[in-house]
TrEMBL record:
<dbReference type="InterPro" id="IPR020476">
    <property type="entry name" value="Nudix_hydrolase"/>
</dbReference>
<keyword id="KW-0460">Magnesium</keyword>
<dbReference type="InterPro" id="IPR015797">
    <property type="entry name" value="NUDIX_hydrolase-like_dom_sf"/>
</dbReference>
<keyword id="KW-0479">Metal-binding</keyword>
<dbReference type="GO" id="GO:0046872">
    <property type="term" value="F:metal ion binding"/>
</dbReference>
<keyword id="KW-0378">Hydrolase</keyword>
<dbReference type="InterPro" id="IPR020084">
    <property type="entry name" value="NUDIX_hydrolase_CS"/>
</dbReference>
<dbReference type="Pfam" id="PF00293">
    <property type="entry name" value="NUDIX"/>
</dbReference>
<dbReference type="GO" id="GO:0010945">
    <property type="term" value="F:coenzyme A diphosphatase activity"/>
</dbReference>
<keyword id="KW-0464">Manganese</keyword>
<feature type="domain" description="Nudix hydrolase">
    <location>
        <begin position="40"/>
        <end position="170"/>
    </location>
</feature>
<protein>
    <submittedName>
        <fullName>Coenzyme A pyrophosphatase</fullName>
    </submittedName>
</protein>
<dbReference type="InterPro" id="IPR000086">
    <property type="entry name" value="NUDIX_hydrolase_dom"/>
</dbReference>
<comment type="similarity">
    <text>Belongs to the Nudix hydrolase family.</text>
</comment>
<dbReference type="InterPro" id="IPR045121">
    <property type="entry name" value="CoAse"/>
</dbReference>
Length: 207
C-alpha cells in the first residue's frame, strides 16, 4: 500500500537542508516535551521523514476503529518497549508490525525529547529518514490508513493551533495541526511540535 502523496515543502528548506538540521543532536534536544514522572509504561514511536524530491513529509497512520485505545486517531508507528529493547529497536519493530516497514530501511538520526501522555506512557520519539518509494502493508487490525503529512506546516510559526476542551470535568489544553482530512492532535501533535522546533531556525521551546 503506497502512502498518499504529500504537499511540497516551500522555500529553500529542501531535503538536504532537512537532513542537515535533523542530524544535529542539539536541535533534536531543544524541542521540549513533558517532564517525566515516576511510573508509567515505556513506549517508543518512529518519526519517519520521507525524503521526496518535491519536499519531505512525515509518515503517519490512522489507527483502526476497532482498537481498544485511541481508536481512529492519527499516530506515529509505535508502542510499548519490550524487555531487552531500547527505544530504537522498539520503534523499528512496531513500525514493521503495524505498517510493514522493513526495519533495514530507516536511517535513524536520534531522539526527540520524551513525551509523557495523559495516560501515563513515557514515549521516546525516534527520528529516522526514509527514501521513497515505500512498499507498505498495514496490519488491518491496527492501522486503517497510512498517509503523509508535508513538513511545510511545521515551518509555520503560527502553528500548531492551541485548543481546549472539557474532559472529565477539567479543562484540558492541547495542540492541533491542520489537515484537510484528519484531526491531528494529542501526543502525535505534541511530538510534531517538538520536531517543528528542531527544524525552525532560532526557535526555542514554547511550552
Amino acid at each position: 500500500m503506497a502512502a498518499e502523496a504529500p504537499g511540497a515543502l516551500p522555500g529553500p528548506l529542501a531535503a538536504a537542508e532537512v537532513v542537515r538540521r535533523l542530524s544535529d543532536p542539539a536541535r533534536l534536544g531543544r524541542g521540549g516535551g513533558a517532564v517525566a514522572s515516576e511510573g508509567g509504561a515505556a513506549a517508543a514511536v518512529l518519526v519517519p521523514v520521507v525524503l521526496h524530491d518535491s519536499g519531505p513529509a512525515l509518515l503517519l497512520t490512522l489507527r483502526a476503529e476497532t482498537l481498544s485505545s485511541h481508536a481512529g486517531q492519527v499516530a506515529f508507528p509505535g508502542g510499548r518497549i519490550e524487555p531487552g529493547e531500547n527505544p530504537e529497536q522498539a520503534a523499528l519493530r512496531e513500525a514493521a508490525e503495524e505498517i510493514g516497514l522493513d526495519p533495514r530501511l530507516p536511517r535513524i538520526l536520534g531522539r526527540l525529547p520524551e513525551h509523557v501522555t495523559g495516560t501515563g506512557f513515557h514515549v521516546t520519539p525516534v527520528v529516522a529518514l526514509l527514501d521513497p518509494p515505500l512498499n507498505l502493508v498495514p496490519a488491518p487490525d491496527e492501522v486503517a490508513l497510512v498517509f503523509e503529512y508535508a513538513l511545510a506546516p511545521l515551518l509555520d510559526p503560527a502553528l500548531p493551533q492551541r485548543r481546549s476542551a472539557i474532559w472529565k470535568g477539567e479543562r484540558r489544553h492541547f495542540l492541533v495541526w491542520p489537515h484537510e482530512t484528519h484531526y491531528v492532535w494529542g501526543a502525535t501533535a505534541a511530538i510534531m511540535h517538538s520536531l517543528a522546533v528542531a527544524l525552525r531556525e532560532g526557535e526555542a521551546q514554547d511550552p
